[in-house]
Amino acid sequence: RVVAVLLAAGEGSRMGGVPKCMLKLQGVPLINRHLIAMSGGGIDEVVVVTGYYHEQIEPAVETFPVTVVRNPQPQEGQQSSVKLGLAALGTKFDLVLVVLADQPLVGSAELTELIAAYKKRPPGTSVVYPEVNGQRGNPVAFSGEVIAEMLETGKNIGCRKFIDANPAMVHKLITNNDRFI
Question: How many Cβ atoms are within 10 Å of 49's Cβ, its own excluded?
């Protein structure tokens, strides 16, 4: 069972206070493009985490079969949104993708590529992320066991920090697909 947390709680400070996920590409808001890609990419359940601009974002996703969780304190950063999204998923999943809602070119092909890399990962690894020309990309795939352990122990769920602190658990999907970055 593959699930995803779609992070859309950001302030858009580098965009002058505009919600990046509501920018349109070919007439479709980025967040909707992600949800369409997820439906075609083998994702069984999606939690969308909103925060800043929730009044604009939530109506844009209400026609999709997703759970919406509002981060009441988005100023606490991305990890607070990740934690809320994961908590909303429960525990009945094998794989969790943590997806950024402002990556306009990540489509169902990229999600399928990441899921396939996760399924073929080396034994002993529990996290897979794409890397393009030495640059980390997104989304990031986490095993259900790792997520359950982080939630159970109350560890700080910062994806990058976890990856950096646990290199033996991480597999890099080395790819030329620059849509991941």
Answer: 28
